Amino acid sequence: MRALVLLAMLLAAAVPWTQARIDARLGRHRAQEEVLYLWSGEQVRRLVPGFEDLLADVYWLRTVQYFGGQRVYAANKRFDLLLPLVDITVTLDPRLQIAYRYGATYLAETYPIGAGQPQAAVELLARGVRNLPHDWRLRQDLGLFHYYFLDDPQRASQILLEAAGMPGSPPFLATLAAQVLMKGGDRATSRQVWRRIYEQDEGPMKNNAAIHLAQLDALDALDAVNGAILAHERGTGVRPASLDDLRAAGYRGPLVDPVGVPFAYDRSEGRATLAPSSSLWRPNLK
Amino acid sequence: MRRLAAVAHNTFRESVRERVLYNLLFFAVIMTVSGLLLGELSIRQDAKIIKDLGLAAMDLFGTLIALFVGVGLVSKEIERRSLHPLLAKPVSRDEFLVGKFAGLGFTLLVNVGLMTAGLYATLLALRRGADPALLKAVFAIYLALLVTVALALLLSIVTSTAVASVSTLCLVIAGRYSDVILNLGDVVPGMPAWALRAVMILIPNFRNFDLKDRVVYGDPVSFGDLGWITAYAAAYTGTVITLAVIAFRRRELT
Asked: How many domains does chain B have?
């Protein structure tokens, strides 16, 4: 009897050990690739009659676990899996509003934060609007994404006005629609767009909005630094050799971005930019 | 009536003795773990997921109990030959069969009732509010379980235990695909409409009993809707139990 208990304990201890070995060989998150075999949400829906909502929850949790939270900056994320995962989720439960909003956010953002597919993000939100026609929040997001990611202020303003006319929508939407139309791509309007998202949301979408707001602050700070570099060059006839020289010359503004990473400086161009090592850096940041 | 109640009472006691209610332990673990973890993982969707999970677990556990215990209700008594001394007492075959059905029905009621209490306790512990509309979905699930028990009982009388298990399972699955059956005419153009209608009537439409999505999203489910669902369940279960009674009367007990 004692030998059997010992054997059972030994075998039980072997379970996590063998699992660790398998993970080391095949990778911890390989299970996500199952979606490659089930590309269609309709296929999955047909497999579980009566349990569609539960399976939608399972897919939703997998999506959040894989693409959100601590893994936001993971370099090896398979963003090609994001759209099928979200598609399966919303096919199983077409009323899961958060899946449209979250999916669209990570589809639209540039790599490494997101998949860099703003058109797919807008299509996902449009699908959400069709499935939840009385939801002003989805319509608001659709408008904001048209403005920010597709550079289409006219369509954005039109959709925001539709959202403003819906029951329960906040009064600022009508003002925002007008601002988007009048000022197009100016930074103050972008700041307002992201501030609204930051104030309304929580979790990864709030964090993402906070990153955008920090980027906008960084761009403001960079404008001031680049203005000072130009003024220094005009005043002394030479460009500062480094940003430290600019500080020594009396510049009092910040020389680091909002996450504390020093700005990069290219003396030949005479321009300061966000350092590529900063978590705020993106290609073509506007 | 007293004899029927006695059979039902014994069936319930037997189910408890056979640890049928142990599934409640799994349910409690599922609810506790999801209550602890989902808030972090799901971005504000914890209440929705807990409701989905709780109702799906009731549906799944209940169906498995209804199916596998239901199939054994009478057939086990026949195989063990424990039915003969029972029928020698002043208990008719009809009373025995209906009593068995009522006993398992009561076991499932206790089971579903405790799972519902667990679901509400989890929601209250998370301060998510105890939505009374959930009871409508629970009631519909319970009706579906009674239909399943009736089918299992009938099939176990007219076939062997193994065949009854498989065929009840097939009917339960087919009943959940009733929308596919309804559209079968589009896929098989030659299929006569009357045949399609006959299949639709024969196979229990378990879609009728699926109110989970509606109540979780707060859609209205009127008492009129529930009334019709109950009437459908009563008609279907009544028919199947009556057929089971007829089959049981004719069955030769060797």
From this structure: 1
Report CA torsion sign: A210, A212, A216, A219. positive
- At CB < 8 A and 24+ separation, what contacts does A30-38 make? A32/A62, A32/A66, A32/A78, A32/A81, A32/A85, A33/A78, A33/A81, A35/A81, A35/A84, A35/A85, A35/A88, A36/A81, A36/A84, A38/A84, A38/A88
ipTM over 0.90: no
pLDDT digits (tens, 9 = 90+) for A85-127: 899 999 999 999 999 999 999 899 887 778 889 999 999 999 9
CB spacing of B207 vs A50 below 8 angstroms? yes
Tokens of A94: 């077409």
Whether the bond between A153 and the residue before it is cis, its omega within 30 degrees of 0, is: no
Kindly state the DSSP code that residue A256 receives in the 8-state scheme: B
Nearest CA among B79, B81, B62 for reference residue B70: B62
Contact A52 B213 (CB under 8 A): yes
B120: left (phi over 0), alpha (psi -120 to 50) or beta: alpha
- Specify the pTM: 0.76
CB B123 within 8 A of CB B115: no
As a whole number of angstroms, the distance between CA B200 and CA B196 comes to 6
A255, A246 contact by CB (below 8 A): yes
Rounded distance between C-alpha atoms, residue A116 and residue A121, angstroms: 9
Q: Do A202 and B212 touch (CB under 8 A)?
A: no
- Distance between terminal CA atoms of chain A? 72
**B179 lies in which domain range?**
2-250
**Residue A34: pLDDT over 70:** no
Structure tokens at A114: 């997101």
Q: How far is CA A16 from CA A7, A19, A196, in A?
A: 16, 5, 46
Contacts 24+ apart (CB under 8 A), B232-236: B232/B205, B232/B208, B233/B143, B233/B144, B233/B146, B233/B147, B233/B208, B233/B209, B236/B147, B236/B150, B236/B204
- Mean pLDDT per block of 10 residues along chain B (254 residues) reads 88 85 82 76 80 92 92 84 78 89 94 93 87 95 96 92 93 87 75 82 90 91 92 93 90 74
Quickly list H helices, A165-202: 172-183, 187-200
Q: Is A110 helix (H, G, I), strand (E, B) or coil?
A: coil
Contacts of residue A52 in chain B, CB cutoff 8 Å? 213
Distance CA(A60)–CA(A66), nearest Å, equals: 10
Could you report the per-residue pLDDT of A54-65, keeping only the tens digit for each?
889 888 888 887
Contacts of A60 in chain B (CB under 8 A): 42, 45, 49
Q: Do A64 and B43 touch (CB under 8 A)?
A: yes
Substitution target from A42, A51, A53, A64 for chain B, most B beta carbons within 10 A: A53
